[in-house]
């Protein structure tokens, strides 16, 4: 699904859709015809695909079990990479990310919301309305059942909902919580009959006094994609931070703007205001434009910051899986 969405969006982002790699020649050919890729650029052999000198960047849309191997090929053939989340948090993957940085090979995790205007202005919002952060809460609930999707197969997607929905709240938390400052972590991972993770509840705190909570679930009956960031000045809340009702590939544009609610004081229902952010294009198109920009500016401070946040998300996921308080 996401490969289709990204392929359809390349032209709008000013990116030429060049080629496709699939395990089977038939599926590569089908994809190439659907997206008007020349048929001789429909590959089923990895070396032929990656050795194409006119290929600049690769979108890795495979199950997590295959991402590290394909990213290694990106580095070997000097191709920039946009990697669908979650990123595997093995030691070897961390080493590959470091090697890519040293070689000026640009990589990004394919989290859409980090490329929108509100996220780029987050530091300004925090300074003005929140102050020193002391609490971060984020959740993403999306009702779903197992009908054979990859995310319900632990051999292909071992992190289940934690790597799927959970990547987004954990990534936001990782902007404020780094592994070296983590003091405590309490987690509950819920599993289905096939041992796939279908629910994640995480709480913890840091040595700098930040308390955090992250939640993800397929089991709740109502969609929720909410984040709250609190500090000594006040609290800001976004009810649709992952896929805004203005500018996501899922919802399109159902509301004119993304709204940030700002509350303060002892009467938050009265002492509140809203700051609106108009999203002029869908988030994943902004993500593709960012990728293109960073390829031309690999020393960008913004790129370095986004990569560091991604790495911290991987470390936090590893800590969650290695130290669960309970697993049901």
Give a written overview of the molecule.
The protein is an alpha/beta fold. It is built from 10 helices and 16 strands. The protein has helices spanning 2-9, 25-34, 46-50, 64-76, 91-102, 117-120, 122-130, 167-173, 283-296, 301-322, and strands spanning 20-21, 42-43, 57-60, 80-83, 107-109, 133-141, 182-191, 197-206, 211-217, 224-231, 235-238, 246-248, 252-253, 258-263, 272-277, 326-327. The strands form 4 sheets. The chain has a 9-stranded mixed sheet with strand order 15-14-11-10-6-9-8-7-16, covered by helices on one side. A 3-stranded parallel sheet has the order 3-4-5. Helix 4 (64-76) packs parallel to helix 5 and helix 8 (167-173) packs across helix 10. The model has no long low-confidence stretch (mean pLDDT 95).
The main β sheet shows up as: 9 strands, mixed
Q: Which structural class do the helices and strands define?
A: alpha/beta
The ordered H/E elements are HEHEHEHEHEHHEHEEEEEEEEEHHE
The helix count comes to 10
Kindly state the number of beta strands: 16
Compute the separation of the termini in Å.
30 Å
- The low-confidence parts are none
* Mean model confidence by pLDDT: 95
Helical content stands at 25-40%
Overall geometry: globular
Taking strands numbered 1, 2, ... along the chain, how are they ordered across the largest sheet? 15-14-11-10-6-9-8-7-16
Estimated radius of gyration: 20 Å
Our estimate of the beta-strand percent is 25-35%
